[in-house]
Amino acid sequence: MFNNRLKIILYAQDVKKANEFWQSLGFFQISFDEIDGSFVAELAVSETSETHLVIYDRQFVETNSSETVEPSPALIFSSDDVLKLYKKLKGENVQVGEIAQIGEEYVFNFVDLDGNYFVVSGQ
Description:
This protein is of the alpha+beta class.
């Protein structure tokens, strides 16, 4: 049976830099390991979050298991204060899209160091 834990794989050109990027956005580092000369980082929005991002080295995976490297997943993060988060990301020099209001929610996207787009929505 499935449970509430969910891990989402992201592939990065530089796992260390990707790890630092997500931490600069407020994510908590769960683990950072070296496996066969490659790094793997696991992060979450908090220590108790049951959803984790697991970042693998794209080149390592392409070399050792090319069939598993897929395009980036489409992720929508939720925020209780979208405008504050938007300002924080801009302050961190993260590439962000324009904020749009859809009904009562605000939505914007941002880009990580590998050019992957993510969406944030909420109040």
